[in-house]
Design goal:
It is a single chain. The protein starts with 20 loop residues before the first helix and ends with a helix. The protein contains 15 helices and 31 strands. The chain is elongated, with a radius of gyration of 29 Å. The chain is of the alpha+beta class. The protein has three domains: about 45-220 and about 405-455, Bira Bifunctional Protein, Domain 2 (BirA Bifunctional Protein, domain 2), CATH 3.30.930; about 255-385, Alpha-Beta Complex (YbaK protein), CATH 3.90.960.10; about 470-570, Rossmann fold (3-Layer(aba) Sandwich). The strands form eight sheets. Strands 3, 7, 8, 9, 10, 11, 12, 21 and 24 form a nine-stranded mixed β-sheet that branches. The structure holds adenosine-5'-triphosphate and magnesium ion. Magnesium ion binds near residues 209, 408 and 411. Adenosine-5'-triphosphate binds near residues 202, 409, 445, 447 and 448.
Amino acid sequence: MKVSQLFFQTLKEVPKEAQIESHRLLYRAGMIQKLASGVYNYLPLALRSIRKLEDIIREELNKRGCQEVLMPSVQPAELWQESGRWGYYGPELLRLKDRKGGDFCLGPTHEEVITDMVRRNLRSYKQLPYNLYQFQSKFRDEVRPRFGLMRGREFIMKDGYSFDVSEEKAKESYKKMYDAYNAIFRRSGLKFKPVDAATGAIGGDMSHEFQVLADAGEDTILSCSKCSYAANLEKATSVYSENRLDSSNVPPVKDVETPNQRSVEEVAAFLGKTTKEIMKSMIYMVDEEPVLILVRGDKEINEAKVQAFCKGNAVELASDSVIEEISGAEHGFIGPVGLKKQIKILADYSVTTMPSLTAGANKVGFHTENVVIKRDFTPDAIGDFVVTTAGERCPHCDGVLEECRGIEVGQVFYLGTKYSSKMKCEFIDENGESVPAVMGCYGIGVGRTVQAAIEQNHDEFGIIWPMALAPYEAIVLPLQMNKEEVKNAAFDFYEKLNAAGVETVIDDRDERAGFKFNDADLVGYPVQIIFGAKSLERGVVEVKIRKTNEKQEMKIEDAVDFVVNFKKEELKIK
Ligand code: ATP
Ligand code: MG
């Protein structure tokens, strides 16, 4: 490709909305254009990188027995009603009506459609396993689209789904995809970490995310300083070093006045206690069910853990009217003792580490002191419902948890029969019985991964593409286009390099050397081969490796082999 013909334009000024470097670089290098908030045109350079990632994904999946399909982005509401998600998915789901008034949505994910697709073909256990995937544009009406392709509203996802005869086989499929994802991100040249993850609206009970390590990442990861334990903050857990203190001498409960003191901090200060001695009590709605969550006052409630424990589709704070109906009081004065209505109570382990705590009295303006768990109230369960923080102890060893930021580029879920039972995706098993298929689902954000590669690999001059994802692998830079001998030698070399299998462009524009160097650095071609009139007289060219910004001279006839070998080395999985 001649750069004069390439559909791109490098920019000096970028739109203000680009807050992180990779987003700015996508604009500056002429790779994307914004069409609407969170909706982008992918220009040729961006699409080439995306296609390269897709090819890596295809190769790794196909060799593991997966098959590619393509499902529509417009999906009928009936399928979502069948799975029960039409009601739960919330405003992220873009709903549409057709001219006959039929309800549809733009697919944010395809569990329903694939489950329907498979149930139409599935008869016998002999057909399974199936593992089907697609590359497709998803639409999620994100609250805050930002960071370019990282959090778009329309974005390209590879999504895959496995169907197996049993839990055991489904876990094997999950493991296979976990391994495939490790291979895909390693081959893409990314520094990443697989971490334990919460399952959110997709559901299921086991999940890992693949996190590209970068400070601009939106996710917080906690990982052990000693062992391989790593988890998303939503899922991360720790071990308390504190043991439960003796409650046997705690006097009976007693109400005390706490006028206008609602928050843990206010109540603690008012009563001359530490926040650790106060019980934080919040009522949440998990789908339609109210649940009281209790944690020690110095801890934060982790809604993702509540959702996972209750196997709910959605979790949100209860409204004032629900709080009033259940407690007879207001937010800030609720507690587990003396509720008007009995509801499910989940207590965090931290509550059990204190001999007693002060909780809301379910009377406006009052708190109850000396509340002892299992003496004054009985929780339905004691578990982990708090946000774990750096510095706490690893759940697997005596290491300490450390915090870093990550960009979630992929996630794998073990779904079990969540969708197949509801949607009757069944087969006849070996005993002649009809049973639901056991499923897993697996997603990679294709655009997000490509942008994450930029976020992780750039300098003040521009992008430094990992070879595997570079839109082109090399650029030939003739510095004097007005000199026939320079032009001819450069074009000759450009053709040879392409013939040798290196995807090469030539900057044939009649521009100053500095202009061409800047563009080449900005776009981030891994290798630049520079043809200047002077060095050409000696039969040499300069070869610059973008990764190190080092230049070396070599004979023209050695340069093709050099670039071919450099590419080969770079593509080796390290
Ligand atoms: P997030 O937590 O970042 O919103 P998610 O967990 O909801 O993402 P999944 O349902 O797991 O996303 O989707 C699979 C993959 O699709 C994610 O790992 C991510 O790489 C990508 N992805 C999800 N949402 C977006 C988005 N708005 N823009 C670009 N890529 C996305
Ligand atoms: Mg995810």
